[in-house]
Amino acid sequence: MEITRSSIDTAKGPDSWFTGDVYIDPVAAAPAPGRVQANLVHFTPGARTAWHTHPLGQTVYVTEGIGLCQKRGGPIEVIRPGDRVFFEPDEDHWHGAAPNRFMAHLALNEVDDDHPAANWGEKVTDDEYAAAPPIER
Ligand code: MN
Predict the structure, then answer these.
(1) Structural class in CATH, domain 11-125
(2) What is the CA radius of gyration of the chain?
(3) CB contact at 8 A, 51 and 71
(4) What is the pTM of this model?
(5) C-alpha 136 – ligand 1 centre gap (Å)
(6) How many degrees, rounded to 5, is the angle at CA 51 between CA 21 and CA 91?
(7) Helix, strand or coil for residue 92?
(8) Domain boundaries, the chain
């Protein structure tokens, strides 16, 4: 048994991966041959990932706020607390906060020596992001 106390500093999401301010807290990092990596990710309003893929797929579980996500070629979807999204292996996509709300999600990835957590692409442009449907009040 290994207890990790709440002692790990929150990390700022790197500018090459995100637009806007994003903060990452590590939740799980299993030693090999375990594969799970989990992070709690907080997005400030308007912040979002760049386009990216996950070689082994990704589950995100929204815990707070209102978010958006989109797979390449699909509509932008609004996601809310309790919603779970699975991104298929190598499915190009992005996720982030709504323009006017924070959003937090748990992000669950599997990683091994041959499969990084993510492969990062270009930023989601303001025009792409602006195609989001209005948030229902
Ligand atoms: Mn993702």
Answers:
(1) mainly beta
(2) 15
(3) no
(4) 0.95
(5) 24
(6) 135
(7) coil
(8) 11-125
Mean pLDDT (10-residue bins), the chain, 137 residues: 92 98 96 95 98 98 98 98 98 98 98 95 98 87
CA of residue 54 to ligand 1 center, whole Å: 7
DSSP lists the bridge partners of residue 48 as 19, 96
The alpha carbon of 85 and the centre of ligand 1 are apart by a number of angstroms equal to 10
Distance CA 97, CA 78 (A): 9
Dist. CA 22 → ligand 1 center (Å): 14
**How many residues are present in the chain?**
137
Q: Separation of 34 CA from ligand 1 center, angstroms?
A: 20
- Separation of CA 17 and ligand 1 centre (Å): 11
Structure confidence at residue 7 (pLDDT): 87
